[in-house]
Design brief:
Radius of gyration: 35 Å
Number of strands: 39
Distance between the termini: 78 Å
Number of helices: 0
Shape: elongated
CATH architecture of the largest domain: Distorted Sandwich
Number of domains: 4
CATH class of the largest domain: Mainly Beta
CATH topology of the largest domain: Coagulation Factor XIII, Chain A, domain 1
Strand content: over 45%
């Protein structure tokens, strides 16, 4: 036997006998303590629920009972929409919605040739308030090609039957089979079936919930919003860009926490020189923060809801320059048309040995900066000690002759100068034939936070810190902190080593 539908929202189900071998009598067990002896009964269930239906068919040779078939009665349906779903004014080429996935919904359906489809009864899911979900919509295609759509989704949050502008959950424009992400608003009516309306129309047709699509389809589904029972997972992003100089050193932090946080607490370490600006505070969801003291900062967000809290720290993720300096571009490699040609020479390691500066050691191994010929290692800070001699070592990948040049912006004016000697910003410039080069550098005092540039090239040209696309060359920048000299470190400067890559 077959039912006319496995799910009903009216309680009425039409059953059709499909027994073989010519039965002469039938007995139906509808799973609700009622039965029928009709061949094709129409049964009405009195209460919502799930029922197991069996049919026993009999003839002169005996009786056989079928396996159980499940019937689901959903008595609760969304409020009727004040505007019905409409069919497209034209239909062509398999346009429409052919599959929808959201929560427990996974519904494959006919394209726009079927017109408006109301799946509010058989296709329903429960979503938690404040939780982020992905709605996957598979759109139909023209034969052999993909068709671009504008897809929008509305949820009747207040259960009044209308779809207001504020109830638009998500949209994806000029795309094919999009995945739409949205967070279930905490203002949604909970515990009641709500109508979800999807409209897909050809790109540029401006799909709306109460307007017939021009070349697409409308489908309705049921969503029940339930309380959130999980604590948040903290996550955030910021407008910070390595090496950039935002106006006033103001950085915007954007909460990306999941599981519906209801409060936020931001903190920064160190806290010196940190202030919340533009009407935001430490408890804002998306604060704006001004930094007035140079150095590395760690940012922490603690997100909280009624179910608990969670914290995330991005350690030393911000390098603040005061004054904020923007340095000229420089890189190796070359460009041919739209193709970037990588250098065959690159820096493999930059290190600093302590020399007479106790504890001032540093080492950073790196590879070829493919596609750019340049890297700023913002998270690799070099510590130098003023009034000492230190060894800076640069190692390249090749042992053939090449030039090694090191600049340090000691006067912190955003320019790498070409003066030499103690305090000179051209720390080293020379032709070397080995993979490793060692340079003795006299570190001036009273500098603070600045930047070092290391370049390796294969030519004999006069070194220029601002040359781009230098061919067989590579450039690396490092943040530098020139610390004060401790009494026990007042000795001769150590040797600086530069090794070719």
């Amino acid at each position: 036997f077959t039912p006319d539908a496995p799910t009903t929202c009216s309680g009425r189900v039409q059953f059709t006998d499909q027994s073989t071998n010519a039965p002469t009598s039938w007995r139906w067990d509808f799973g609700d303590n009622t039965s029928s002896t009709q061949q094709n009964p129409l049964h009405t269930y009195a209460a919502a629920g799930t029922y197991q239906v069996r049919l026993t068919a009999t003839n002169a040779a005996g009786s056989t009972t079928s396996a159980a078939t499940t019937i689901t009665y959903n008595a609760s349906v969304p409020v009727a929409a004040t505007c019905p779903g409409l069919a497209a004014s034209a239909n062509c080429c398999n346009y429409g919605i052919v599959r929808v996935r959201l929560g427990s919904i996974d519904n494959t359906s006919a394209d726009g040739s079927a017109g408006y489809q109301d799946f509010t009864c058989p296709q329903r899911t429960s979503l938690s308030a404040g939780i982020r979900y992905t709605l996957n919509v598979t759109t139909g295609m023209t034969t052999g090609t993909s068709s671009a759509y504008d897809v929008r989704a509305w949820l009747d949050l207040n259960n009044d039957g209308t779809f207001s502008a504020s109830e638009k959950l998500a949209e994806a424009l000029n795309t094919t089979s999009p995945s739409l992400s949205f967070t279930v608003p905490g203002t949604a009516v909970q515990g009641q079936p709500l109508r979800l309306r999807l409209v897909a129309d050809g790109t540029g047709n401006n799909p709306q919930p109460c307007t017939a699509p021009v070349l697409g389809q409308v489908e309705d589904y049921t969503v029940t919003v339930v309380p959130n029972t999980t604590p948040p997972v903290a996550a955030f992003a910021s407008s910070y860009v390595v090496g950039a100089c935002p106006a006033g050193n103001v950085i915007t932090f954007t909460d990306q926490s999941t599981n519906g946080p209801t409060s936020w607490l931001w903190s920064f370490s160190p806290s010196t020189g940190v202030s919340f600006v533009n009407g935001t505070s430490a408890t804002s969801q998306n604060p704006q923060v001004a930094f007035t003291t140079a150095g590395y900062y760690s940012a922490t967000l603690r997100a909280t809801n009624a179910n608990g809290s969670n914290a995330l720290t991005q350690a030393n993720s911000l390098l603040i320059q005061v004054p904020c300096l923007s340095y000229c571009a420089s890189n190796g490699g070359s460009v041919s048309g739209s193709t970037f040609i990588n250098s065959q020479l690159w820096i493999a390691n930059v290190s600093v040995s302590a020399g007479t500066a106790s504890g001032a050691t540093f080492s950073n191994a790196s590879g070829n900066s493919t596609g750019t010929g340049y890297t700023f290692f913002a998270g690799q800070s070099v510590r130098l000690v003023g009034g000492t001699t230190q060894n800076i070592n640069v190692t390249t990948n090749l042992g053939s002759a090449h030039r090694v040049t090191i600049w340090v912006d000691y006067n912190r004016d955003g320019v790498f100068g070409n003066t030499t000697g103690t305090g000179g910003e051209l720390v080293y410039n020379g032709i070397v034939s080995a993979a490793a080069t060692t340079v003795a550098a006299a570190i001036p005092s009273g500098v603070g936070t600045t930047r070092m540039r290391v370049a390796v090239t294969v030519n004999n040209n006069t070194p220029n810190p601002c040359t781009t696309n230098q061919g067989e060359a590579e450039v690396e920048d490092y943040p530098v902190n020139v610390a004060a000299l401790a009494a026990r470190e007042a000795q001769a400067l150590a040797t600086l080593s530069v090794s070719p890559n």
